[in-house]
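Predicting holo structure, nicotinamide-adenine-dinucleotide bound.
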Amino acid sequence: MKVAVVGSGYVGLVAGACLADLGHEVTLVDSDKEKLNTLKAGVVPIHEKFLPELVARNSRAGRLVFSDSLPEAVGKSLVIFIAVGTPAMETGDPDLSYVEEVVSVIAKHVDHYKVVVEKSTVPVLTHEQIRKVMLLNGAPAEAFDVVSNPEFLREGTAVQDFLYPDRIVVGVSNEKSASILRDLYEPLVQGAYCRRSDAVPASAGQNGKTEFIVTSAKSAELIKHASNAFLAMKISFINAVASLCDAVGANVEEVSKGIGADHRIGRSFLRPGIGFGGSCFPKDLTAFQLVARECGVNFSLLEKVVEINHEQRNRFLRKVRGALWTLKGKRLAVLGLAFKGGTDDIRESPAIAIIKGLLEEGAQVAAFDPAAMERTQSVLGQSIVYAETPYAACHSAHALLILTDWPEFKDLDLARIRREMRHPIVIDGRNMFHPEDMANAGFHYYSMGRTTPPAASSHPRGPVTPISPGLELQELNGSTTMTAAR
Ligand code: NAD
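Done. Tokens:
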């Protein structure tokens, strides 16, 4: 099938490369000339596992081309995906002007039947606006259908999520467009793709079974917002439970295991941390709240989800103060800048928000991230030191803060980290390590919703006084005051 994907960002580039890998002929369109030139030169501008391989093999095979000409791409395609950004405006509403701009160009170049697919995340009823703009710009009513096909991929595992989705939702107004989308996704729905010897492998937990769900366009639009809101709610819920665990000295991992064993609840998204971020949850939650308000529906639950999420960052900062007392002049090592592991995306990253808070209190930060350092420089400039390795970041640090769940952080040489640091204090906002392992490695280890065991005292710089669980030792800072850790 001939397909155009408009917008080659985190969603469009992944969707385009994956659709090409299914055998479709894909034209990826973007208005950003620099990005297009990078892609044409064979360089993938974002960090996403398997994406460089997919882009390379499908470009080589001629199934994936990059273009700045939307009219040309529209002319030759049956299906046109709109995957441009819908960032939040000051009001919290998503900025739909990029979508409108693209739709008005598509409308003018519809010469025979096309399916216009809303892939960007948009508020319910946007498909009606798209249809209106198509008609206003001269597209004949019988020459197009508008379909909502929300995207559920997660950055960091985007390619595998796209190729092994739990479900594909298509919101349509007739069988014709539903059947075209069914054909387009057939290799995923029928499982032919995963049987291919050169298929991208599924990740753990993905079984290649995909439900193809046909709904009205309104329902499809709501499914996307409601899914993100529900996942965000699970995160805030477990973060609030983790605070309770901290307060009473319980272990949130045991609690979430016990909760998640109930199949009605499930185990996923029950890991506490420093809160959610990224380009989707915060913006989509706000947009969903506004939709509910406009419809006269009381959905104040969503406000609480956002509130708890925001508070989580403050709670982490309080943990840092609890462990270090004052922050002015303290040298802090930070591991992780991206909003989650596996991506270079720093949009709404809680790590960046926390670093800003630390800097405001006069701390010095040396940070390392496997992929997000360049993007962070455009936001934080030279206000922090960008270390070449995790160990360099830890050099002479009063404490190490773990802010992103990059899996490779689990493999760090803890003894080396400890040797680099001035004081063996680790405050883990992502629960990457086991408290006992960290204590055995000689660290004062603070995490989210788990008690702090006493550190073993074998520090090469001299013995470290063990501390009682739940208490902070200020001796490391020249004072012997004990303060509650919570
Ligand atoms: P992005 O900012 O990474 O990419 C958007 C791209 O659209 C950019 O490359 C930009 O240059 C291009 N663009 C903007 N205006 C254009 C125009 N007029 N013509 C051609 N190209 C244009 O955004 P993203 O993260 O890929 O998100 C895209 C949409 O998908 C958003 O609505 C987002 O909410 C949704 N979404 C994102 C994710 C995610 O994990 N990032 C997941 C699901 C859904």
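Residues 224-309 form a domain with the N-(1-d-carboxylethyl)-l-norvaline Dehydrogenase; domain 2 fold (CATH 1.10.1040.10).
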